[in-house]
Amino acid sequence: GDVRFHFMVNLGDLKHFILVLGPALTFRVGHNPKNVTTADVVQVAGESSLHFFLSHMMILLTALHFLCMLFILVALAVSATFFCVRQRSHLRMKEKLASLGTDTSTDATATYQELCRQRMAIRTSERVERPETLRHSRLNSVSSQFSDGPAASPSTRSSTSSWCEEPVPSNMDISTGHMILSYMEDHLKNKNRLEREWEALCSYQAEPSTCSVGQGEQNSKRNRSDAVVVYDHSRITLKAENNHSNSDYINASPIMDHDPRNPTYIASQGPLPSTVTDFWQMVWESGCVVIVMLTPLSENGVKQCHHYWPDEGSDVYHIYEVNLVSEHIWCEDFLVRSFYLKNLQTNETRTVTQFHYLSWMDRGMPTSARTLLDFRRKVNKCYRGRSCPIIVHCSDGAGRSGTYILIDMVLNRMAKGAKEIDIAATLEHLRDQRAGMVQTKEQFEFALTAVAEEVNAILKALPQ
Ligand SMILES: *[C@@H]1O[C@H](CO)[C@@H](O)[C@H](O)[C@H]1NC(C)=O
Ligand SMILES: *[C@@H]1O[C@H](CO)[C@@H](O)[C@H](O)[C@H]1NC(C)=O
Ligand SMILES: CC(=O)N[C@H]1CO[C@H](CO)[C@@H](O)[C@@H]1O
Fold first, then answer.
1. Confidence grade of residue 395 (pLDDT, cut at 50, 70, 90)
2. Cis before 208? omega within 30
3. Among 356, 375, 367, 366, CA closest to 399
4. Which of 253, 321, 365, 418 has the most crowded CB, counting CB atoms within 10 A?
5. Are 254 and 302 in contact (CB under 8 A)?
6. pTM of the shown model
7. Strand extents, DSSP E, 188-319
8. Does the CB atom of residue 105 touch ligand 2 within 6 A?
9. 165-461 — its CATH code?
10. 1-57 pLDDT tens trace
11. Would you kindly state where each structural domain of the chain is located, as residue ranges?
């Protein structure tokens, strides 16, 4: 086979090597002007002396070979031991985190407290050892708060990492995939058709569409925009036993996909200073573990969303204690924060992960479909296997949130093997549940492009 062939070649090379460097034979056999071959050399040197020499060299080579094997075996054993030790500590950490889930025993509380302490210890040592890291992460959070998205250049961020997720294995029907692609290509080339479809979507009337609760005198101050107020028949209601504000109202809508009882998403407006507590109450009561935030905190000096989490350490909002555990900047366009959320009434704790897309402006599009798709893959990798809704919010919770939910819903349906995909009908289904989902024709076009790009990536990743 291949291996043996290589070995023979090497041996051949070594013979030449030996002949050149060996103490008993001092003539060269490499490339030479007179084209003297090994055979000539053998004749000149005499067969017996060469054979004697070669057989000794063979013994030496065998010994070397044996030593190499021994070295490789030792190296393997050392790395295997190292890997096992790492895996075990990793597992221990995982178990710890898992036990935090819904466990209300004092054990879980102790673990939670210990993790918070560890977290603080890590933070303190960071401050001592790596002041640069801290300064940059703070610089970043400040700049995202007061400027138009990320201002610091990527080179100044020390915790940036930017590998991309692969498309997840999918049960997508290949012929549906190809059909979608050719449909999209036609759609994007034929601008008139897109225009017509968008006009039809704009004249679509959701029924029923009364918003009397959201427009009520007491609740109108809890809406960010008057264009997007929740429908009475499709709104999240806060539980009365916790109501600190004498209202069950929050501007957030459950978004159903296949299951009419359990929402797949909650589309919410970005919290106002006066509704931050309501927001965390909703996070708690919906069982949410993943928040998708699609807006910078402000844009051209206009507030888009209140800074509803602690910048460092923990904050208490009514009975919800929120502890910032980590902040990881993936790339210029998005970062991921993880929080420990604790209900101070019951002592229950939960981990909540927030995916924050920084560079998507109101009524605009993300910088590239590829980046948003990578963002979506990271969100879904974190969410995988859960049954709680994902909370998606931007500023009004309809334009950018609607675009994201449309893309995610269509791609999830395709991944489950759906044979018929109608993106416009899916958007109407979303608009039945919340007003203003997908704000502009450009956002709708972006959704089509993003779906096509992901389908293309999945088809490419399939074994041909
Ligand atoms: C909660 O709010 C409602 C009004 O929406 C009020 O009738 C009720 O008394 C409140 N409950 C508590 C415990 O404050
Ligand atoms: C929650 O923890 C505090 C302090 O550890 C304790 O005093 C309180 O009784 C606990 N409450 C519940 C409902 O377990
Ligand atoms: C604070 C705020 O913008 N509130 C709005 C809530 O919604 C109503 C319409 O029902 C608007 O009139 C308010 O301005």
1. very high
2. yes
3. 366
4. 253
5. no
6. 0.68
7. 252-255, 265-268, 290-293, 298-299, 302-303, 314-317
8. no
9. 3.90.190.10
10. 333 333 333 333 433 333 333 333 333 444 444 454 545 544 544 444 555 555 666
11. 4-62, 165-461
Q: Which atom of ligand 1 is nearest to the CA of 244?
A: 14
Q: For residue 292, list its beta bridge partners.
A: 355, 392
DSSP secondary structure code for residue 359 in this structure: S
- pLDDT tens digits, residue range 198-245? 999 999 999 999 999 999 888 989 999 888 999 999 999 999 876 677
Residue 316 one-letter amino acid: V
In single-letter form, the type of residue at position 73 comes to: L
Residue from 218, 241, 243, 245 to probe ligand 1 pocket by mutation (most atoms less than 8 Å from CB): 243
Residue nearest to atom 10 of ligand 3 (CA): 215
Tokens found for residue 21 = 């460097």
Phi, then psi, of 293 in degrees rounded to 5:
-110, 120
pLDDT band at 78 (very low <50, low <70, confident <90, very high): low
What separation in Å is there between the alpha carbon of 313 and the centre of ligand 3? Answer: 33
249 Cα nearest atom in ligand 1: 5
